[in-house]
Amino acid sequence: MPSAVDQKPAIELKNVTRRFGALAAVDGLSITVAPGEVFGLVGPDGAGKTTTLRMLCGLLDATEGEVLIEGDDVRTHLDEVKDKIGYMAQRFGLYTDLTVEENMIFYADLFGVTGADREALMTRLLAMTRMAPFRSRPAGKLSGGMKQKLALMCTLLHHPKILILDEPTNGVDPLSRRDFWLILDELVAQGLTLMISTAYLDEAERCHRVGLLHHGKLIHCDTPAALKAMYGVKTLEGAFVAAIERQAA
Ligand SMILES: Nc1ncnc2c1ncn2[C@@H]1O[C@H](COP(=O)(O)OP(=O)(O)OP(=O)(O)O)[C@@H](O)[C@H]1O
Ligand SMILES: [Mg+2]
């Protein structure tokens, strides 16, 4: 039987607004993500995706509203929240002169993961991502897709329960993107909750639910099937274009 603690949403944004001066980059946003759910955040450039994800990690404070991770307010429980989440920023910082292994050790150290635990986890992640043959290669010499896999591994080194990924496959070729999603599917099968922003609507199709952001507002939030049915279109791309056009009209 799941306990009451398990039933808390993994992520909750309650009427969250974030202003930069006069601009409301995120405007009255409410989203609840269940444990084990894969939630996709889509929207045009500047829609407020990164701002939203940064607030989930406590890197930015909300101007108004509440941000909760497993029921803990990010503002008052930052240490607990940091333990629970793995955040891969839109421009994740890898050290190009360091090897794959050295980058992983650097991030493991940062999280206080050492010794046998670190080695076991590194071995498992390198096998899962099929990056083991490149363990000694400098990060700067990896392909785009491999760099993103390395960034993902660095994000996973402290056993987070909730993964927050900001456009992790941007600019990556289709085969490598598919590969990346196979890894994500495996992590989700192991029980991780995933919130991911993406510019690729074929990726959004893989999410349980998709939130469409426009000018900081959530204009739709539903399953891919429901969003397509709403606009009578076959692809999420069609639904996305129709939704944005309707907003502009
Ligand atoms: N630190 C900041 N100071 C001022 N304005 C900001 C800041 N961060 C973001 N913004 C503005 O807030 C809006 C939302 O930006 P955000 O980066 O969240 O969008 P996004 O959906 O992630 O876009 P992209 O798809 O290009 O990554 C934009 O208009 C942006 O210029
Ligand atoms: Mg962004």
Number of strands: 10
Largest pleated sheet: 6 strands, mixed
> Strand order within the widest sheet?
6-7-8-3-9-10
Q: β content, as a range?
A: 15-25%
Helix tally equals: 9
What structural category characterises the helix and strand content?
alpha/beta
Average pLDDT confidence is 93
The Rg value, from CA coordinates, equals 18 Å
CATH class of the domain at 11-92 and 160-248: Alpha Beta
Helix and strand sequence: EEEHEEHEHHHEHEHEEHH
Which small-molecule species are bound to the chains here? adenosine-5'-triphosphate, magnesium ion
Q: Do you know the CATH architecture of the domain at 11-92 and 160-248?
A: 3-Layer(aba) Sandwich
CATH superfamily label of the domain at 11-92 and 160-248: P-loop containing nucleotide triphosphate hydrolases
Low-confidence stretches: none
Query: What is the first-to-last residue Cα distance?
Result: 49 Å
CATH topology of the domain at 11-92 and 160-248: Rossmann fold
Would you mind describing this structure in some detail?
The chain is of the alpha/beta class. The chain has a domain at 11-92 and 160-248: 3-Layer(aba) Sandwich (Rossmann fold). It contains nine helices and ten strands. It has helices at residues 49-56, 78-84, 100-110, 115-128, 144-155, 174-189, 201-204, 224-231, 236-248; strands spanning 11-20, 23-33, 38-42, 64-69, 72-73, 85-88, 162-166, 193-197, 209-214, 217-222. Helix 8 crosses helix 9 (236-248). The model has no long low-confidence stretch (mean pLDDT 93). The protein binds adenosine-5'-triphosphate and magnesium ion. Adenosine-5'-triphosphate (ATP) is lined by residues 20, 23, 25, 43, 45-51, 90.
